[in-house]
Structure formats: structure tokens, C-alpha cells
Amino acid sequence: MTVEVTRREKSLVDFAVVDTSTGKTLVTDYIGSDAMRWFLWWENPSRLWGYGSDLGYFKVFDFASGRVTSSSVSDATPVPQFVWDHLPTSKQRRYRVAPALLPEN
After folding, report:
1. CA dist 13 to 35, 67, 80, 82, Å?
2. Phi, psi of 74 (to 5 degrees)
3. CA distances to 6, 35, 42 from 45, in Å
4. 20 to 30 Å CA-CA from 73: which of 19, 46, 56, 83?
């Protein structure tokens, strides 16, 4: 899968997740303004995190099992270290870092 980010009029950031093998668009969404802090990050090949500061956009998308699910990230949701590191300091106080997964032996 790939993420395609486009800029719409007035500095608005849209994105789409596309299945590269079929060309099918799996998800489209609007994350906020390009003048504010935002990011999209693949935690692994089937899990995408998105954050946009101006709208309070904070979602995680799962693409496992041929289905697409998305959910808003709540204060109780542990976030990966990379995600936490890229949040504003005010948001870092609200979220905790998920324990790192240890490689299997």
C-alpha cells in the first residue's frame, strides 16, 4: 500500500491509501491544513497512524484481513514511540507510549 498526499485549495491536506497491486483506493480522508503540524506514519505494513493538529485529527487505520478499519485515538490508546515523539508537548502529556514489541526468538 502507498499513501498519496495531495494539497487542495487553501492549503488543505488530503490523503488516500492505495493498494499498489490493484490500484484500488482503500481510504481517503482530510487531515487538516499544511500550515499546521501533521503526519502520516506506517507502524507496520498494515497499520497507519495519522495526526493533524488544527482539527484535532488523530486516527489509526488497520488494513489487516482484507478489511479497512479506522478509529479515533483516545487518551487511553497507547501510541508507538515514533508517534509520541512527533506529537506536540501538550499532547504528549495525554498519551502514553506503547511498550516496544520484542522480537520473537
Report:
1. 10, 24, 23, 21
2. -95, 170
3. 21, 28, 7
4. 19
Q: Which tens digit of pLDDT belongs to each residue from 64-87?
A: 877 899 999 999 999 999 999 999
Amino acid identity, position 100: A
Map grid coordinates 502520516 to a residue. 40
Residues of the chain with pLDDT under 50: 102-103, 105
DSSP string for residues in 19-84: -TTT--EEEEEEEEETTS-EEEEEEETTEEEEEETTTTEEEEEE-GGG--EEEEPPTTS-B-HHHH
Strands 57-62 and 47-52: antiparallel
Q: Cell digits for 100?
A: 516496544
Q: CA-based Rg of the chain, rounded to a whole angstrom?
A: 14
First to last CA, the chain: 28
